[in-house]
Amino acid sequence: MTVPSGISDTMAVSARDRRFMAAAIRLARWHEGRTGSNPSVATLIVREIDGAPVIVGRGVTAIGGRPHAEPQALAEAGELARGATAYVTLEPCAHHGRTPPCAEALVASGVTRVVAAATDPDERVSGRGYAILRAAGIEVEEGVLAREAERDLAGYLKRRTSNRAHVTLKLAVSANGMIGRRDGRQVAITGEIARHQVHALRARSDVILIGVGTAINDDPELTCRLPGLEDRSPVRLVLDTQLRLPAGSRLVATARDVPLWIATAAAPDDPRRAELAELGVEFLACDAHDGRIALPELLEDIAARGLSTVFVEGGADVARTFLAEDLVDRLILLTGEGSVDGDAVNAPVTRTTIPEAFRLVASMTYGTDQMDEYERA
Protein backbone atom coordinates (compact mmCIF):
# COMPACT_ATOMS: atom_id res chain seq x y z
CA MET A 1 0.00 0.00 0.00
CA THR A 2 1.53 3.32 -1.05
CA VAL A 3 1.62 5.91 1.73
CA PRO A 4 1.02 9.43 0.35
CA SER A 5 3.51 12.12 1.28
CA GLY A 6 2.83 13.60 4.72
CA ILE A 7 0.71 10.67 5.99
CA SER A 8 2.22 8.40 8.60
CA ASP A 9 2.20 4.60 8.42
CA THR A 10 -0.12 4.54 11.46
CA MET A 11 -2.68 6.74 9.72
CA ALA A 12 -2.45 4.65 6.57
CA VAL A 13 -3.03 1.41 8.47
CA SER A 14 -5.96 3.01 10.28
CA ALA A 15 -7.54 3.99 6.97
CA ARG A 16 -7.03 0.43 5.72
CA ASP A 17 -8.60 -0.95 8.88
CA ARG A 18 -11.65 1.26 8.46
CA ARG A 19 -11.99 0.24 4.82
CA PHE A 20 -11.92 -3.50 5.48
CA MET A 21 -14.10 -3.21 8.58
CA ALA A 22 -16.69 -1.30 6.55
CA ALA A 23 -16.62 -4.17 4.04
CA ALA A 24 -17.09 -6.69 6.86
CA ILE A 25 -20.07 -4.75 8.22
CA ARG A 26 -21.69 -4.79 4.78
CA LEU A 27 -21.10 -8.53 4.51
CA ALA A 28 -22.73 -9.15 7.91
CA ARG A 29 -25.98 -7.62 6.60
CA TRP A 30 -26.42 -10.53 4.19
CA HIS A 31 -27.87 -12.76 6.88
CA GLU A 32 -29.59 -10.28 9.19
CA GLY A 33 -32.88 -11.73 10.39
CA ARG A 34 -31.82 -15.28 9.41
CA THR A 35 -29.35 -16.39 12.11
CA GLY A 36 -31.73 -17.38 14.91
CA SER A 37 -30.57 -16.42 18.38
CA ASN A 38 -27.05 -15.65 17.15
CA PRO A 39 -26.16 -12.27 15.64
CA SER A 40 -25.20 -11.95 12.00
CA VAL A 41 -21.43 -11.40 12.21
CA ALA A 42 -18.83 -11.23 9.45
CA THR A 43 -15.12 -11.99 9.28
CA LEU A 44 -12.60 -11.07 6.61
CA ILE A 45 -9.06 -12.50 6.45
CA VAL A 46 -6.70 -10.04 4.79
CA ARG A 47 -3.02 -10.45 3.97
CA GLU A 48 -0.38 -8.74 1.86
CA ILE A 49 0.11 -10.29 -1.57
CA ASP A 50 2.57 -8.62 -3.93
CA GLY A 51 2.57 -5.55 -1.72
CA ALA A 52 -1.21 -5.05 -1.63
CA PRO A 53 -3.87 -6.13 0.90
CA VAL A 54 -6.04 -8.95 -0.44
CA ILE A 55 -9.10 -10.62 1.09
CA VAL A 56 -8.23 -14.32 1.18
CA GLY A 57 -11.10 -15.54 3.37
CA ARG A 58 -14.60 -14.35 4.18
CA GLY A 59 -17.40 -15.67 6.33
CA VAL A 60 -20.78 -14.60 7.69
CA THR A 61 -22.80 -16.33 10.39
CA ALA A 62 -24.64 -19.13 8.65
CA ILE A 63 -28.41 -19.21 8.29
CA GLY A 64 -29.75 -20.64 11.52
CA GLY A 65 -26.75 -19.36 13.50
CA ARG A 66 -24.05 -22.00 12.91
CA PRO A 67 -21.27 -22.14 11.95
CA HIS A 68 -19.96 -18.76 13.05
CA ALA A 69 -18.21 -16.39 10.67
CA GLU A 70 -14.63 -16.93 11.86
CA PRO A 71 -14.23 -20.65 11.09
CA GLN A 72 -15.81 -20.17 7.67
CA ALA A 73 -13.41 -17.35 6.78
CA LEU A 74 -10.43 -19.28 8.12
CA ALA A 75 -11.41 -22.39 6.15
CA GLU A 76 -11.56 -20.36 2.95
CA ALA A 77 -8.18 -18.74 3.66
CA GLY A 78 -6.44 -21.98 4.60
CA GLU A 79 -2.67 -21.52 5.01
CA LEU A 80 -2.96 -17.95 3.76
CA ALA A 81 -4.40 -17.07 7.18
CA ARG A 82 -0.97 -17.50 8.77
CA GLY A 83 0.46 -14.05 9.34
CA ALA A 84 -2.74 -12.34 8.14
CA THR A 85 -5.14 -9.86 9.77
CA ALA A 86 -8.66 -10.88 10.71
CA TYR A 87 -11.44 -8.30 10.67
CA VAL A 88 -14.40 -9.25 12.87
CA THR A 89 -17.56 -7.21 13.38
CA LEU A 90 -18.12 -8.64 16.89
CA GLU A 91 -15.67 -9.87 19.52
CA PRO A 92 -14.87 -13.56 18.85
CA CYS A 93 -16.70 -15.96 21.15
CA ALA A 94 -14.73 -17.41 24.05
CA HIS A 95 -16.97 -20.15 25.47
CA HIS A 96 -16.74 -23.86 24.71
CA GLY A 97 -19.57 -25.90 23.27
CA ARG A 98 -19.16 -28.97 21.08
CA THR A 99 -16.84 -26.87 18.95
CA PRO A 100 -13.96 -24.68 20.20
CA PRO A 101 -14.53 -20.95 20.60
CA CYS A 102 -13.80 -18.69 17.65
CA ALA A 103 -11.05 -16.91 19.58
CA GLU A 104 -9.13 -20.18 19.83
CA ALA A 105 -9.75 -20.93 16.14
CA LEU A 106 -8.14 -17.60 15.28
CA VAL A 107 -5.15 -18.43 17.50
CA ALA A 108 -4.72 -21.85 15.89
CA SER A 109 -4.90 -20.36 12.40
CA GLY A 110 -1.75 -18.30 12.87
CA VAL A 111 -3.26 -14.86 12.26
CA THR A 112 -1.04 -12.22 13.82
CA ARG A 113 -3.53 -9.40 14.14
CA VAL A 114 -7.26 -9.09 14.85
CA VAL A 115 -9.23 -5.90 14.23
CA ALA A 116 -12.62 -5.89 15.95
CA ALA A 117 -15.61 -3.57 15.91
CA ALA A 118 -18.13 -4.23 18.69
CA THR A 119 -17.53 -5.91 22.05
CA ASP A 120 -19.87 -8.80 22.91
CA PRO A 121 -21.87 -8.09 26.11
CA ASP A 122 -22.52 -11.81 26.66
CA GLU A 123 -20.93 -12.49 30.05
CA ARG A 124 -19.38 -15.67 28.64
CA VAL A 125 -17.51 -13.58 26.08
CA SER A 126 -17.19 -9.94 27.09
CA GLY A 127 -13.45 -9.20 27.10
CA ARG A 128 -12.55 -12.88 27.27
CA GLY A 129 -12.33 -13.28 23.51
CA TYR A 130 -9.83 -10.44 23.30
CA ALA A 131 -7.91 -11.83 26.30
CA ILE A 132 -7.46 -15.23 24.59
CA LEU A 133 -6.06 -13.53 21.51
CA ARG A 134 -3.67 -11.28 23.41
CA ALA A 135 -2.45 -14.14 25.59
CA ALA A 136 -1.41 -15.91 22.39
CA GLY A 137 0.60 -12.88 21.28
CA ILE A 138 -1.90 -11.66 18.71
CA GLU A 139 -2.18 -7.91 18.27
CA VAL A 140 -5.76 -6.79 18.90
CA GLU A 141 -7.28 -3.50 17.78
CA GLU A 142 -10.72 -2.93 19.34
CA GLY A 143 -13.50 -0.52 18.51
CA VAL A 144 -12.85 0.09 14.80
CA LEU A 145 -16.16 1.39 13.38
CA ALA A 146 -17.78 0.17 16.58
CA ARG A 147 -20.76 2.51 16.35
CA GLU A 148 -21.53 1.43 12.78
CA ALA A 149 -21.33 -2.25 13.72
CA GLU A 150 -23.43 -1.72 16.84
CA ARG A 151 -26.22 -0.18 14.77
CA ASP A 152 -26.55 -3.40 12.78
CA LEU A 153 -26.11 -5.52 15.92
CA ALA A 154 -28.59 -3.41 17.91
CA GLY A 155 -31.11 -6.23 18.24
CA TYR A 156 -28.62 -8.71 19.61
CA LEU A 157 -27.06 -6.12 21.92
CA LYS A 158 -30.47 -5.04 23.27
CA ARG A 159 -31.49 -8.64 23.91
CA ARG A 160 -28.23 -9.36 25.74
CA THR A 161 -28.18 -6.19 27.84
CA SER A 162 -31.91 -5.61 28.48
CA ASN A 163 -33.49 -9.05 28.02
CA ARG A 164 -35.98 -7.70 25.51
CA ALA A 165 -36.27 -7.38 21.77
CA HIS A 166 -35.13 -4.22 19.98
CA VAL A 167 -38.02 -2.21 18.50
CA THR A 168 -38.04 -0.27 15.23
CA LEU A 169 -41.19 1.77 14.62
CA LYS A 170 -41.95 2.58 10.97
CA LEU A 171 -44.49 5.22 10.00
CA ALA A 172 -45.53 6.48 6.57
CA VAL A 173 -46.68 10.09 6.98
CA SER A 174 -48.32 12.39 4.44
CA ALA A 175 -47.11 15.91 3.78
CA ASN A 176 -49.92 17.22 6.01
CA GLY A 177 -49.02 14.88 8.89
CA MET A 178 -51.56 12.08 8.42
CA ILE A 179 -51.09 8.31 8.28
CA GLY A 180 -54.44 7.23 6.84
CA ARG A 181 -58.21 7.63 6.79
CA ARG A 182 -60.59 6.90 9.65
CA ASP A 183 -63.04 5.10 7.37
CA GLY A 184 -60.42 2.40 6.78
CA ARG A 185 -60.05 3.09 3.06
CA GLN A 186 -56.44 2.56 2.09
CA VAL A 187 -54.53 5.49 0.68
CA ALA A 188 -51.04 5.35 -0.82
CA ILE A 189 -48.84 7.77 1.11
CA THR A 190 -45.48 6.78 -0.40
CA GLY A 191 -44.39 5.60 -3.82
CA GLU A 192 -43.20 2.26 -5.11
CA ILE A 193 -39.49 2.85 -4.43
CA ALA A 194 -40.14 3.66 -0.77
CA ARG A 195 -42.44 0.65 -0.43
CA HIS A 196 -39.69 -1.59 -1.80
CA GLN A 197 -37.38 -0.18 0.85
CA VAL A 198 -39.89 -1.16 3.53
CA HIS A 199 -39.86 -4.72 2.19
CA ALA A 200 -36.05 -4.70 2.48
CA LEU A 201 -36.37 -3.58 6.10
CA ARG A 202 -38.81 -6.42 6.74
CA ALA A 203 -36.28 -8.89 5.35
CA ARG A 204 -33.71 -7.80 7.95
CA SER A 205 -36.11 -8.22 10.89
CA ASP A 206 -36.98 -11.19 13.07
CA VAL A 207 -40.58 -10.14 13.76
CA ILE A 208 -43.04 -7.74 12.12
CA LEU A 209 -45.83 -6.51 14.41
CA ILE A 210 -49.23 -4.90 13.88
CA GLY A 211 -52.43 -4.48 15.89
CA VAL A 212 -55.57 -6.42 15.13
CA GLY A 213 -57.30 -3.23 13.95
CA THR A 214 -54.80 -2.86 11.12
CA ALA A 215 -55.05 -6.58 10.39
CA ILE A 216 -58.83 -6.34 10.01
CA ASN A 217 -58.99 -3.03 8.11
CA ASP A 218 -56.08 -3.58 5.71
CA ASP A 219 -56.04 -7.41 5.49
CA PRO A 220 -52.26 -7.37 4.81
CA GLU A 221 -49.91 -10.26 4.17
CA LEU A 222 -46.90 -8.63 5.91
CA THR A 223 -44.42 -10.61 3.83
CA CYS A 224 -41.30 -9.58 1.98
CA ARG A 225 -42.24 -9.56 -1.68
CA LEU A 226 -39.03 -8.36 -3.28
CA PRO A 227 -37.89 -10.77 -6.01
CA GLY A 228 -35.41 -13.23 -4.57
CA LEU A 229 -36.12 -12.28 -0.94
CA GLU A 230 -39.49 -13.94 -0.50
CA ASP A 231 -38.04 -16.55 1.86
CA ARG A 232 -36.78 -13.80 4.16
CA SER A 233 -40.22 -12.83 5.44
CA PRO A 234 -40.12 -12.42 9.24
CA VAL A 235 -42.45 -13.93 11.81
CA ARG A 236 -45.73 -11.99 11.68
CA LEU A 237 -47.16 -11.00 15.05
CA VAL A 238 -50.62 -9.55 15.67
CA LEU A 239 -51.64 -7.88 18.93
CA ASP A 240 -55.12 -9.31 19.43
CA THR A 241 -56.27 -9.19 23.04
CA GLN A 242 -59.63 -10.87 22.45
CA LEU A 243 -58.89 -12.93 19.30
CA ARG A 244 -60.78 -10.85 16.74
CA LEU A 245 -58.58 -11.79 13.76
CA PRO A 246 -60.82 -13.44 11.16
CA ALA A 247 -59.96 -16.99 10.16
CA GLY A 248 -60.47 -15.91 6.55
CA SER A 249 -57.84 -13.17 6.65
CA ARG A 250 -54.82 -13.29 4.36
CA LEU A 251 -52.57 -13.54 7.40
CA VAL A 252 -54.25 -16.72 8.58
CA ALA A 253 -54.51 -18.11 5.05
CA THR A 254 -50.71 -17.98 4.75
CA ALA A 255 -49.90 -19.10 8.30
CA ARG A 256 -48.50 -22.43 7.15
CA ASP A 257 -46.18 -20.70 4.68
CA VAL A 258 -44.94 -17.81 6.85
CA PRO A 259 -45.18 -18.06 10.67
CA LEU A 260 -48.10 -16.15 12.20
CA TRP A 261 -48.19 -15.50 15.93
CA ILE A 262 -51.03 -13.92 17.84
CA ALA A 263 -50.36 -12.21 21.16
CA THR A 264 -53.58 -12.58 23.12
CA ALA A 265 -55.11 -12.57 26.57
CA ALA A 266 -58.02 -14.77 25.48
CA ALA A 267 -58.74 -17.77 27.66
CA PRO A 268 -56.89 -21.00 26.84
CA ASP A 269 -60.21 -22.76 26.15
CA ASP A 270 -61.52 -20.05 23.82
CA PRO A 271 -62.86 -21.98 20.81
CA ARG A 272 -61.31 -19.45 18.43
CA ARG A 273 -57.88 -20.62 19.57
CA ALA A 274 -58.57 -24.14 18.35
CA GLU A 275 -59.95 -22.87 15.04
CA LEU A 276 -56.93 -20.67 14.35
CA ALA A 277 -54.45 -23.26 15.62
CA GLU A 278 -55.91 -25.75 13.16
CA LEU A 279 -54.97 -23.30 10.42
CA GLY A 280 -51.34 -23.03 11.56
CA VAL A 281 -51.46 -20.05 13.93
CA GLU A 282 -49.25 -20.01 17.04
CA PHE A 283 -50.18 -18.12 20.21
CA LEU A 284 -48.27 -16.06 22.74
CA ALA A 285 -50.15 -16.01 26.03
CA CYS A 286 -49.96 -12.45 27.32
CA ASP A 287 -51.06 -10.32 30.22
CA ALA A 288 -53.48 -7.49 29.49
CA HIS A 289 -53.29 -4.03 31.04
CA ASP A 290 -56.21 -1.62 30.58
CA GLY A 291 -57.51 -3.87 27.82
CA ARG A 292 -54.21 -3.92 25.92
CA ILE A 293 -51.41 -6.45 25.60
CA ALA A 294 -48.66 -5.75 28.14
CA LEU A 295 -45.87 -4.75 25.75
CA PRO A 296 -42.78 -4.87 28.00
CA GLU A 297 -43.55 -8.47 28.96
CA LEU A 298 -44.28 -9.32 25.32
CA LEU A 299 -40.88 -8.01 24.23
CA GLU A 300 -39.25 -10.09 26.96
CA ASP A 301 -41.09 -13.19 25.76
CA ILE A 302 -39.97 -12.56 22.18
CA ALA A 303 -36.35 -12.24 23.37
CA ALA A 304 -36.69 -15.45 25.38
CA ARG A 305 -37.41 -17.23 22.10
CA GLY A 306 -34.06 -16.04 20.78
CA LEU A 307 -35.51 -13.34 18.53
CA SER A 308 -33.91 -9.91 18.66
CA THR A 309 -35.64 -7.40 16.37
CA VAL A 310 -39.27 -6.29 16.11
CA PHE A 311 -40.39 -4.12 13.20
CA VAL A 312 -43.60 -2.32 14.19
CA GLU A 313 -45.88 -1.42 11.27
CA GLY A 314 -49.06 -1.00 13.25
CA GLY A 315 -51.51 1.87 13.08
CA ALA A 316 -51.67 5.04 15.14
CA ASP A 317 -52.83 3.38 18.38
CA VAL A 318 -50.08 0.76 18.38
CA ALA A 319 -47.44 3.37 17.48
CA ARG A 320 -48.60 5.74 20.23
CA THR A 321 -48.57 2.95 22.79
CA PHE A 322 -45.01 1.89 21.97
CA LEU A 323 -43.87 5.52 22.11
CA ALA A 324 -45.77 6.26 25.34
CA GLU A 325 -44.25 3.22 27.04
CA ASP A 326 -40.75 4.28 25.95
CA LEU A 327 -40.20 1.04 24.03
CA VAL A 328 -39.08 2.42 20.66
CA ASP A 329 -35.34 2.12 19.99
CA ARG A 330 -35.31 3.17 16.34
CA LEU A 331 -37.79 5.34 14.47
CA ILE A 332 -38.17 5.35 10.69
CA LEU A 333 -40.33 8.05 9.09
CA LEU A 334 -41.29 7.88 5.44
CA THR A 335 -42.76 11.22 4.40
CA GLY A 336 -44.70 11.42 1.15
CA GLU A 337 -45.34 14.51 -0.93
CA GLY A 338 -49.12 14.14 -1.08
CA SER A 339 -51.79 15.00 1.49
CA VAL A 340 -54.54 12.89 3.03
CA ASP A 341 -57.73 14.94 3.09
CA GLY A 342 -61.08 14.44 4.76
CA ASP A 343 -61.52 12.51 8.00
CA ALA A 344 -57.86 11.52 8.37
CA VAL A 345 -55.76 10.03 11.19
CA ASN A 346 -53.08 12.25 12.69
CA ALA A 347 -49.60 10.74 12.72
CA PRO A 348 -48.29 10.00 16.23
CA VAL A 349 -45.05 11.72 15.24
CA THR A 350 -43.79 13.72 12.26
CA ARG A 351 -40.44 15.16 11.21
CA THR A 352 -41.25 18.30 13.23
CA THR A 353 -42.36 16.51 16.39
CA ILE A 354 -39.59 13.96 16.95
CA PRO A 355 -39.28 13.13 20.67
CA GLU A 356 -36.20 14.64 22.32
CA ALA A 357 -34.88 11.19 23.17
CA PHE A 358 -34.10 10.53 19.48
CA ARG A 359 -31.35 11.77 17.19
CA LEU A 360 -31.25 11.74 13.41
CA VAL A 361 -28.77 9.19 12.06
CA ALA A 362 -29.67 8.98 8.36
CA SER A 363 -31.76 10.67 5.68
CA MET A 364 -32.46 9.27 2.24
CA THR A 365 -34.63 10.12 -0.73
CA TYR A 366 -36.61 7.46 -2.57
CA GLY A 367 -38.26 8.96 -5.62
CA THR A 368 -40.39 11.80 -4.24
CA ASP A 369 -40.40 10.40 -0.70
CA GLN A 370 -38.14 11.26 2.21
CA MET A 371 -36.94 8.61 4.65
CA ASP A 372 -35.49 9.73 7.98
CA GLU A 373 -34.03 7.33 10.51
CA TYR A 374 -33.71 8.22 14.18
CA GLU A 375 -32.18 6.33 17.08
CA ARG A 376 -32.53 6.73 20.79
CA ALA A 377 -29.68 9.00 21.88
From TrEMBL:
A Pfam family annotated for this UniProt entry: dCMP_cyt_deam_1
Cofactor remark from the record: Binds 1 zinc ion.
CDD domains linked: Riboflavin_deaminase-reductase
Origin organism lineage: Bacteria, Pseudomonadati, Pseudomonadota, Alphaproteobacteria, Hyphomicrobiales
Protein function: Converts 2,5-diamino-6-(ribosylamino)-4(3h)-pyrimidinone 5'-phosphate into 5-amino-6-(ribosylamino)-2,4(1h,3h)-pyrimidinedione 5'-phosphate.
Species of provenance: Hoeflea alexandrii
CC cofactor: Zn(2+)
Record NCBIfam families: eubact_ribD
Keywords: Hydrolase, Metal-binding, Multifunctional enzyme, NADP, Oxidoreductase, Riboflavin biosynthesis, Zinc
PANTHER family on file: 2,5-DIAMINO-6-RIBOSYLAMINO-4(3H)-PYRIMIDINONE 5'-PHOSPHATE REDUCTASE (PTHR38011:SF7), DIHYDROFOLATE REDUCTASE FAMILY PROTEIN (AFU_ORTHOLOGUE AFUA_8G06820) (PTHR38011)
Name used for this protein in its record: Riboflavin biosynthesis protein RibD
